[in-house]
Amino acid sequence: MKLSMPRFDQAPVLVVGDVMLDRYWHGGTSRISPEAPVPVVKVEQIEDRPGGAANVALNIAALGAPAMLVGITGIDEASDSLTDSLNAAGVEVHFQRLAQQPTIVKLRVLSRHQQLLRMDFEEAFDTDAEAVATEVERLLSGAKVLVLSDYGKGALKNHQVLIQAARRSGVPVLADPKGRDFSIYRGASLITPNLSEFETIVGRCLDEAELVAKGAALMQELDLGALLVTRGEHGMTLLRPGHHALHLPARAREVFDVTGAGDTVISTLAAALAAGEELPQAVALANLAAGIVVGKLGTAAISAPELRRAVQREQGSERGVLSLDQLLLAIEDARAHGEKIVFTNGCFDILHAGHVTYLEQARAQGDRLVLAVNDDASVSRLKGPGRPINSVERRMAVLAGLGAVDWVVSFAEDTPECLLSQVKPDVLVKGGDYGIDQVVGADIVRAYGGEVKVLGLVENSSTTAIVNKIRDRS
User: Quick one: which of 220, 212, 216, 163 has its CA closest to 189?
Assistant: First the structure.
């Protein structure tokens, strides 16, 4: 299945459901309490993260999609913390704040990245379902997908009112279900139970054939558009009426913490569908995102650069020949991962040992090497008639095969100054025996604080000399 990274910035998603605050107390432990056989944790850091439906909205915003959130909280410090965090992430918050009822807080005590204890502070909310429905209907006109993030805490009282309102507006409804009664999600476009939740409804599934059969029956009974069963280490299974089952393997390299993985799945699905992706492609993206999040501690949002890099790795396009637009996106992702960008350029008409050594030295100046190659017309202007010997496509293909080179891009001008202004590398490298002030583009790079370095060339290695030698022998 071919994957691409959607444009999420025009993909607004409305999330409705149970919001909560995930609070973490971090500290070291070096002794056992004299009062009971339990470790003593010296709390050194307190961290708050949006949880539940708030984490879904946060994940959507982290992907770059506009996110709106409707939920219930108390009038307390936890609600303020949630609001501040979500607003800072760009989430449009619409909380129904109730007096005399606390915001749901889940407190986890951790030491050395290991969870020692979890304490839940919660009461079922006395939700004004009519007020929630009115707010949802008002916001639906600005949404392309509605997500029902149901944790059974009371924010969602009348699922059918919300589902039918979305259907009247032509907005797909995705639901992350809870409980023993899935009939409340009747008519949803997609529900995403995990295997345990699914088997609670349909009974034990001894093999995939039984899972598919029981899933098909459930879709027909509840008039569902699709069903996605998340299966932990066994991946995911997407079922759609009239289609073969789609089984996707788990993508996690190492599972560190599964907290929030379900939120990541439905948020990525929602954002991808809102961006116009077909359901199988959206599920594949969600599967990649889930593989990333389980390698993190606690509830965590997946950023667009992280997901884009996973897509590039999946398609084998993390390195190689790129267009300018693709290169700028790749550099954005690299910088989001704290990587240092090195840039060099040249004709590279006939690759020789001097080129290889120089490019290895250039790559050592940072984490990623961008190699800009003159196109055929500019080589002819610079080198004279009969050059280049190899077309730009062939030159780029050979250069992209070198281990030192991450990305290869061509340019049509005689100098790479226009390209440098867009790429803005951290380090501009050139080979030769001239001074730094003679390096083309040095003033551009130094103007924004970048470095300019001149590296030596391997002696007796010259493309022109090689060409002349060949011509002399012919």
Answer: 163
Contact indicator for 425, 445 with CB cutoff of 8 Å: yes
Specify the pLDDT at position 401: 87
Residue 4, CA distances (Å) to 200, 266, 276 in order: 35, 18, 12
263 is catalytic: yes
pLDDT profile of the chain (474 residues), mean per 10: 79 96 94 93 94 94 95 95 96 94 94 91 88 96 96 91 96 94 96 94 92 96 96 88 89 48 90 95 90 64 79 69 84 85 92 88 93 93 88 91 91 93 95 79 94 76 59 59
Chain centroid to Cα 343, Å, comes to 26
Contacts of 465 (CB under 8 A, 6+ apart): none
Query: pLDDT value at position 279?
Result: 95
CB 192 within 8 A of CB 175: yes
C-alpha 374/C-alpha 205 separation (Å) is 60
Q: How far apart are CA 217 and CA 208, in angstroms?
A: 14
Sign for the CA dihedral angle at 255, 304, 136, 239 comes to negative
| CA distance linking residue 196 with residue 177, whole number of Å | 11
CB 316 within 8 A of CB 295: no
CA 444 to centroid of chain Cα atoms: 32
242: left (phi over 0), alpha (psi -120 to 50) or beta: left
Residues 88 and 82: beta-carbon distance below 8 Å: no
Residue tagged active-site, from 263, 333, 376, 426: 263
What pLDDT sits at residue 281? 92
Do 134 and 2 touch, CB atoms closer than 8 A?
no
